[in-house]
Write a structure and sequence with these properties.
This protein is α/β, with parallel strands linked by helices. The chain has one domain: 3-Layer(aba) Sandwich (Isopropylmalate Dehydrogenase). The longest helix is centred in the middle third of the chain and has 17 residues. It starts with 11 loop residues before the first helix and ends with a helix.
Length: 303
């Protein structure tokens, strides 16, 4: 099977929503990398952020010069040690000096370790979770997938936090009452498929907590996104075939699903961690500038 050769396109509607928030101060963590600098430049050109660069200042200036960007008016915090850039950025967020953290060329676990430091108070009562805002065309309505990057095998309580974070994000992008599909391998509740049992429990729990969303599971992927598939299988509820949000049972499912959409469809994956004091842009080191720009826009919208 051939991979998609479509150029990934950042959704215009997401950029426009982000612009309504005004220019946001953002810390760029370990910024001395070509893709990191190029995506920040794109965000600045779209009037989304005012960056504070953290990293090796020589590399930062070198990569900015290579793309013809004069960054002399922006703050650069010289930190040559990669692992120390995350803590520097986390402290800026803790001190209310930035509203947004953007991952540059740094491993996600190093960045998250700094953010989770208790003395910085970046985490409140909510659980952090990762959201992917997926689009294939420039003006697509998004499909939100959560959590395929942060919580590995979340328990029931954690999944309730993930659902609430995703619903809140959906509200911010203009979906007043999102439809949330709780994915499993089947639409039946089977003891042999633990995720189906958990999805059913989450459906009951969501109703009890009066979350402002239509939430149902278990649903297999086809039943969640295809009205035709749901009709053939005689599945009748408000979510089947019309999902805005897919809650995946584990990180492998979410990660694989998103990367299949990227590589087989050319989808734009905007990734952001929500639930903390500030949103955190988490992108793959393989992501191109358009996906990174979309991720920055999604994080701003979540503010």
């Amino acid at each position: 099977m051939d991979l998609a050769n479509r150029k990934i396109v950042c959704p215009k509607n997401l950029i426009e929503k982000a612009k309504t928030k005004g220019v946001v101060k953002a810390a760029i963590v370990n910024a001395g990398n070509e893709l990191a600098i190029s995506s920040v430049f794109a965000a600045v050109q779209n009037n989304l952020i005012e960056p504070i660069f953290i990293g090796n200042q020589d590399k930062i200036k070198e990569h900015a010069l290579q793309i013809g960007w004069d960054i002399s008016s922006y703050e650069i915090i010289h930190e040559p040690e990669e692992n120390s850039t995350a803590l520097t950025a986390a402290k800026l967020a803790s001190e209310n000096k930035v509203q947004l953290l953007v991952k540059g060329h740094i491993h996600t676990d190093i960045l998250m370790k700094a953010i989770l430091k208790k003395d910085l108070a970046l985490i409140g009562k909510k659980r952090l979770s990762h959201i992917w805002h997926m689009t294939a065309q420039e003006n697509d309505a998004p499909l939100i997938i959560t959590d395929g990057a942060l919580n590995v095998l979340p328990k029931l309580e954690t999944k309730m936090h993930i659902i609430k974070n995703a619903v809140e994000f959906a509200n911010r992008i203009g979906i007043a009452k999102p439809k949330v599909a709780l994915l499993s391998a089947t639409e039946e509740i089977l003891e042999s498929v633990p995720s189906s049992i958990e999805a059913n429990l989450l459906t009951i729990r969501a109703k009890e907590e009066n979350i402002n969303a239509d939430i149902f599971g278990p649903l297999a992927f086809d039943n969640a996104i295809s009205e035709k598939a749901a009709k053939i299988k005689n599945i009748k509820n408000a979510v089947a075939g019309k999902a805005d949000i897919l809650l995946v049972p584990n990180i492998e499912t979410g990660n694989s699903l998103v990367k299949m959409l990227i590589y087989f469809m050319g989808a734009c994956a905007a990734g952001v961690v929500v639930g903390g004091k500030v949103p955190i842009v988490i992108t793959s080191r393989a992501d191109d500038v358009e996906a990174r720009l979309a991720s920055i826009a999604a994080a701003i919208v979540s503010l």
